[in-house]
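User: Last request for today: this protein with BJW, please.
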Amino acid sequence: MFQAIMADFARIVILTGAGISAESGIDTFRAAGGLWEQHRVEDVATPEGFARDPDLVLGFYDMRRAALARAQPNPAHEALARLEREFSKVPGRDLLLVTQNVDDLHERGGSARVLHMHGELKSALCTACETRSPWREAMLHRPPCPACAEPGLRPDVVWFGEMPYQMGRIYQALEACDLFVSIGTSGAVYPAAGFVQEARAAGARTLELNLEPSEGSRLFHETRLGPASVLVPEWVDEVLQTRI
Ligand code: BJW
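Assistant: Here's the final one, the structure of the complex with BJW:
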């Protein structure tokens, strides 16, 4: 029972994956009918795939950017924003929300401090000058980079074989955290799949909230199964009732 291990946590790291946005209508990757069933991961989520067939990759991300414009945050995103607001009112407490998701539903749900370790759909990376620019439009027609005018934009996302963003900051937070919570991720992709072990090595309690057990479920002190839109608000209520 989580209440029983709910000591006075001061530093929380929360990791989210595609499952937290599933109920907002955003496809996950590995489910039946998910993105990897519709597209080969090697074709659309590797630098080699992009070099081979840029039209396929740009079209894939244009389609997902358009789907994102139709999606809304769900109660799980909103609950994490509420937790951030309440938790950070007390000096000395720190909450870091790390997401593997490239959508902006945490921000639209009200979270102010979100670290996108796999990049963002609404950002473009210029392969010519390496400038990052906010981006909302399609890329398939090769628009010019706002900084250098070269038609070399790619989605600012992290593909297999590339280094995820802000790893130094994330590992620093994991080393200092006393609670690590993983929400809606299959635990199939590293380095995020290894965060639970990093947190445990630092002495943190660990909790998984997921529809189905992740690949690393046994590594968590506790796993709760169910939809994020139910589990996350319930857990946030527990934390805030225990703490305030
Ligand atoms: C619900 C729900 C509901 C559903 N409520 N829950 C061998 C061993 C170890 C590592 C490697 C290895 N061989 C290669 C590697 C490295 C490789 C890797 O991990 N490969 C694996 C295949 C093994 N990793 C990399 O290359 C990474 N870079 C790297 O390692 O650099 C070197 C390095 C060294 C040292 C330190 C740091 C770095 C880069 C990985 C990039 C991943 N990119 C993608 C695409 C991003 C852009 C895009 O969105 O298109 O990121 S792949 C894809 O997977 C995406 C996701 O962020 C990521 C994780 O997926 P996620 O979120 O877990 O989704 P699903 O679909 O898998 O799961 C959904 C979950 O939700 C399920 O559990 C459901 O139950 C649940 N769910 N509905 C609650 N309603």
